[in-house]
Amino acid sequence: MRSRLLLGTCAAALGAAAFAAAAQQPSWGAIASAYPAWGYAYEHPTREAAEREARAQCERAGRRRGASCEVRVTFERTCGAMAQGNYGEWGVATASTAAEAARAAARQCDNHLPTEPCRVVVRACSPGG
To answer: If 0-12 CB within 10 Å is exposed, 13-18 middle and 19+ buried, where does residue 81 land?
Structure first.
């Protein structure tokens, strides 16, 4: 009986240690755009990988317009969002939740004096913290 209890305790400890190690791994995200196209990435092991994926998505989406996409924001183990206005205005933000990031991105975009309120076009989280 004692050996089963010890084995169960060891297995639980190993599982917790593996979970804690995974939580400490980098988890990057990025958002890129070239109005009106955009792309995003999340849960990538490096910032560069997240930026590359976000740019590639954006360029595929904007292919008909010859989009030259730029990374607007990167984030590690948090959330990011981007809002766009009617004439290319944009705003980005990061926050601990997607909803907070979206509100902040819309506020930032609205500060560029768009003719209509900006709308959130993407929000993503790269958890792990």
So the answer is: buried
pTM of the complete model: 0.78
- DSSP calls for 35-103: TTEEEEEEEESSHHHHHHHHHHHHHHHTGGGT---EEEEEEESSEEEEEE-TTS-EEEEEESSHHHHHH
Q: Quick one: tokens of 6?
A: 């010890």
**Tens-level pLDDT at each residue, the chain (129 residues):** 444 433 343 444 444 444 444 557 889 999 999 988 999 999 999 999 999 999 999 999 888 666 689 999 999 999 999 999 988 899 999 999 999 999 999 999 999 876 789 999 999 999 864
Question: Which residue carries 């309120």 as its tokens?
Answer: 117
